[in-house]
Amino acid sequence: MKQSSPARQRLTSLALLGLPLLTYPILSLPVGMWAGMPADYIYLFGVWAGLIVLAARVAEKKA
Amino acid sequence: MLSGWFILLLSTAYLAVLFAVARFGDARADAGKSIISANVYALSLAVYCTSWTFYGSVGRASSGGLSFLTIYIGPTLMLMMTGIILKMIRISKVHRITSIADFIASRYGKSQLLAGLVTVIAVVGVIPYIALQLKAIAASLDVLLLEGEADFLPWWLDSTFLIAALLAVFTILFGTRHLDATERHEGMVAAVAFESVIKLLAFLAVGLFVTYGMFGGLADVFQRAAASPELERLLHLDASRAGTWTAMILLSGLAIIFLPRQFQIIVVENVDESHLKRAVWLFPLYLLLINIFVLPLALGGLLHFHGQAFNADTFVLTLPLARGAEALALLVFIGGLSAATGMVIVETIALSTMVCNDLVMPWLLRSSGLGASKDVSRLLISIRRAAIAVILLLGYIYFRAAGEAYALVGIGLISFAAVAQFAPAMFGGMYWKQGTRAGAVAGLSGGFVVWIYTLLLPSFAKSGWIGNGFVEDGLFGVSALKAQALLGLSGLDEISHCLWWSLLTNLGLYILVSLNSRPDAVEAGQAERFVDVFRHSAQETDHRTWRGRASIDELVSLLERFLGVARARQQLMLYARGRGAVSWQKLPADADFVHFAEAQLTGAIGSASARVMVSSVAQEEEIGLEEVLDILDEATQVRAYSRELEAKSNELEQATAELRAVNERLRELDKMKDDFISTVTHELRTPLTSIRALSEMLHEDPKLELTDRRRFLGIIVGETERLTRLINQILDMAKLESGRAEWTSTEVDLGDVVRESMAALGQLFRDKNVALTAALPDRCPPVLADRDRLTQVMINLLSNAVKFVPGGSGKVHVSIHANAQRLQVEVADNGPGLTGEECSVIFEKFRQGGNTMTDKPQGTGLGLPISRQIVEYFGGNLWVESVPGEGANFIFTVPLTAPEEPQGDKKHGS
Residue B112 — pLDDT band, cuts 50, 70, 90? Predict the structure, then answer.
């Protein structure tokens, strides 16, 4: 196993993508209310769910 | 009305169900049918969600808004770093590691000192966390009982102490049921996964009840909160706390793999590495689901209890009770109990293993407290049981000492900060070969001391247990030593402050001391094996880095003492079978056996103690650092060579296959040659036989009539001509096939060639009274070819035609058609025609139309093959179209000179 498998590399890059999206300063961008809900709440759960969906697609893909 | 006894009964019943699940899991594991699937593994990871999540998150959200989410975002991101986690799992499998203390100790040369240090940090660090669970259960009980009998317990019995004692008994029954301490706890994992489902369902139920039953849905809760000036701030993140946000993500990301119970579940209890693929998304999904309703619940509680006294940590209970939903409250209580018991069980089992292997065993070994006792495995279990009780007792004491001063989350974060201290030694150990034992010891102790001073002691001070002078004014009144503003660093919350200083100290000392110290041989070898775990296979190099003398009997008795006789024998049998021996008594006491014994002991008592025990019975020769590194290096090279060899042998195989194919072809050709020779000799013999027979008759009978003589001589001349023709054609064929034929290429008018050939054979047609007609254009486009050769083809086709058509009524028609690329010549006759099979056969050598067995052969059987060769040489085709009974149509094509360069001018075979 000289090289990391593609799935592992993709998952790691997802983590590296998620880190800036879920921390400041990008986190200070959503303000106010979106559709009657706090923008921060929608944004955090939205990005989080997006990461989970992507991770599931990468991880469950048949090699 | 909820009766205390009813709650007690319900809790006991629930614990009994858990016990049954665990029993079932263990039974299935014993039967070899593990129930640990990828889903169960992923769910068992949710032991991360303790009563902190269940009760504390709502409390945190009601004061800090969305900041509670950091604790779940960190693990999501960390779990996606599957490379790191997979490496931890692989290393632990290869080295039979059973705890995080063992992991670190094993990496840094199987050091007892390091194992003990990590154990102390883990125990001290995690005790507040256990206290948190006790506090949560106690608080939830208080809420439920407030409704019923306030004091159903006798005055001398503290309910929290009772809970601690019950949990201790339950954990002991649960986790240390097995006498062998080495195997995984599959039953426990199954029960934890079951609990995870219960607590998620309970939390979602209360979330839905409050959001949609007490309020008008998510948007309604948020809008009512937005209308209140106090609650409005909870809806939005506070950008001024950006540093804390990131620090919490880092902290929780480290906690998810370094908390002893998480290490136990993720690494030690992992059955199959591929399960990680499910966990990487299912566990974050679990975290997301259990957090969706946290903020709505907090806001709902604050809105509902506005103006009253409340404890936000218990909103999940008080809200349903406020609406009289007692059944739901009970479900929530069971969910919270699940969360707490799951954590306590796994955590104390993990800690008790560490305490037993890394604190008590080394002390027993040193003080020879073991004496000559025959079977230590029972002692091991007893030590673990005692450790569980002591740990829970310590948790209770911490709860009494400092528990009241903090909210749930505050206590949990203290523990997170403690286990974060393992990060430098762990990551360094997995990825940095230069990290040394001295560095790890220095880093861990430095970080631990800073943690104690900046976080643990202030938590005692806050509850008034010890004086708080060192927090307010600094130690000895030195303001630079203020516990929560070291060197004047202020403006951070206490967790970030501690994390910053402790990790800085830890990492700094680890790197500095590592760079300035030299590892010994064992340590360097372990470093190599840990960092390059994917390159070194399991035991490939182990037995080469050990030299010495040992005796089978001593090693076996050692195994029997620590594993128990039955289990030791069973493992020995398996091992012996693996080496192809009939029984283990017959095995040599070589390095491989010593390693087997050490690995078995490592599973039972940890790597450090195992090493001490094995070296007590085996005389090991010292191997120098350089030599160990050489051996490991060599092993890597050997693997590289073997890969090269494999590639070479693949190439060889390929070459062999090619050779075989060529050989096959040669054999075929050889057979064809044999066939050819036998056919040729047969063809030559036929005319020779008739010549010889007639000559003999002429020779032996002088009185033969003149007319007969002339007839015989005529036949002889004819047969000789046929013979000559045959030989000429064979020679021609041979020349064509060998490529030695001479070709001259000129521009040829095919029409002329056809006309000449027809003229040459005109007499033949007239003799047989066959009509020869032609439809030829005046001028044909020129083709590049050998005129004589084309004439030969044409004459062959015409003479074939005249041979097969019936005399008198026979007709032969020749025509030429031109198109853009080629000229097409057709020779059509009205002879007997050819069957489909014959159409292809007549182009083979010595095959003729008609029945050669009965009819006299009418040709040599070489004309058509030669003609086809000639036509193909010039880039054309020769074939026949025929319907039996209606004549045959021989067609050949020759490509035109323009537009493309003809192939005709190149010498064949050159």
Answer: confident
Which positions in chain B touch A59 (Cβ < 8 Å)?
Answer: 277-278, 280-281
Q: What is the number of CB-based contacts under 8 A between chain A and chain B?
A: 104
Say if B73 is an interface residue toward chain A (CB within 8 Å).
yes
Q: Does B292 touch chain A (CB under 8 A)?
A: yes
Interchain CB contact of B277 with A (< 8 Å) = yes
**Cβ within 8 Å, pair A37-B222:** yes
Query: Cβ of A17 under 8 Å from any chain B Cβ?
Result: no
Instruction: Answer yes or no: do B39 and B155 share one domain.
Output: yes
Q: What is the number of structural domains in chain B?
A: 5
Q: Which domain holds residue A51?
A: 6-60
Instruction: Tell me the per-residue pLDDT of A13-53, one tens digit each, with 9 for 90 and over.
Output: 999 999 999 988 888 888 877 877 888 899 999 999 999 99
Residue of A nearest to B74 (CA): A19
- Measured between beta carbons, the chain A residues lying within 8 angstroms of B80 are 11-12, 14-15, 18, 51, 55
**CA dist., res. B730 & res. B721, Å (int):** 14
Tens-place pLDDT, residues B373-429 = 667 777 888 888 999 999 999 999 888 877 676 666 777 888 899 999 999 999 999
**Residue B271's CATH number:** 1.20.1730.10
Which structural domain range is residue B707 located in?
A: 628-735
> CB count, 10 Å around CB of B464?
12
Q: Let me know if residue B409 belongs to a domain.
A: no
The answer to whether B38 faces chain A, any CB pair under 8 Å, is no
How far is residue B787 from each of residues B312, B552, B794, measured CA to CA in Å?
Answer: 110, 95, 11
State whether B768 and B867 are in the same domain: yes
Side-chain half-sphere CA neighbours of B357 within 13 A: 35
Answer whether residue A1 is part of any domain. Answer: no
Do B686 and B811 share a domain, yes or no?
no
Q: Is residue B902 very low, low, confident or very high in pLDDT (cuts 50, 70, 90)? A: very low
Burial of B4 (0-12, 13-18, 19+ CB in 10 A): middle
